[in-house]
Amino acid sequence: MAYDKQEARVRKHVRIRKNLSGTNQRPRLSIYRGTRSLNAQIIDDAAGKTIFSISTLDKNFKSAGNNGGNVKGAAALGELIAKKAQEKGITVVVFDRGGYLYHGRIKAFAESARKAGLKF
Predict the structure, then answer these.
(1) pTM, entire model
(2) In this structure, is residue 62 part of a structural domain?
(3) 107 within 8 A of 101, measured Cβ to Cβ
(4) Rounded to an integer, what distance in angstroms lies between the CA atom of residue 41 and that of residue 96?
(5) Which residues contact 54 (CB under 8 A, 6 or more apart)?
(6) Which residues lie across from 54 on neighbouring strands?
(7) pLDDT, tens only, 21-80
(8) 6 belongs to a structural domain
(9) How many other CB atoms are there within 10 angstroms of residue 35's CB atom?
(10) How far from chain centre, in Å, is Cα 73?
(11) Tell me, what CATH number does 62's domain have?
(12) How far apart are CA 72 and CA 86, in angstroms?
């Protein structure tokens, strides 16, 4: 059987998700890293609902001149999601890195979200 990086990431994500879930008071901040974009969602697992999501492919993100395929774009997305979360009254979240290493774009996203006011 050949080693598949995507399959290994999904296995890690499943293992992480066994012990991680979002509640109404502390929703889950989930991130997906594509080759050219990042998608982030804030999810209430108890209710089974996505509170809101944001992507580097959104028109308002792209119109600001950002690119989602690099670290700078990931940092901008982290800031944007923190501001949007605070507008909805969310200040504390559980960070779900999606099986990715806490490195590069994922780290930049998380650190900028923390800097903008989200606690995790």
Answers:
(1) 0.91
(2) yes
(3) no
(4) 10
(5) 39, 40, 41, 61, 77, 80, 81, 84
(6) 40
(7) 998 999 999 999 999 999 999 999 999 999 999 999 998 888 877 887 899 999 999 999
(8) no
(9) 6
(10) 13
(11) 3.30.420.100
(12) 22
Predicted local distance difference test score (pLDDT) of residue 63? 80
d(CA 15, CA 57) in angstroms, rounded, equals 29
DSSP letters along the chain, please?
A: ----HHHHHHHHHHHHHTT----SSS-EEEEEE-SS-EEEEEEETTTTEEEEEEETTSHHHHHTT--TTSHHHHHHHHHHHHHHHHHTT--B-EEE-TT--SSTHHHHHHHHHHHTT-B-
Question: In this structure, are residues 52 and 88 in contact, taking their beta carbons and an 8 Å threshold?
Answer: yes
Hey, CA dihedral for 46, 11, 119, 67, is it positive or negative? negative
Residue carrying the six token digits 């008071």 = 25
42 found inside a domain: yes
Q: Which residue has the tokens 């609902």?
A: 49
Dist. CA 34–CA 21, nearest whole Å: 23
* Residue type at position 40: A
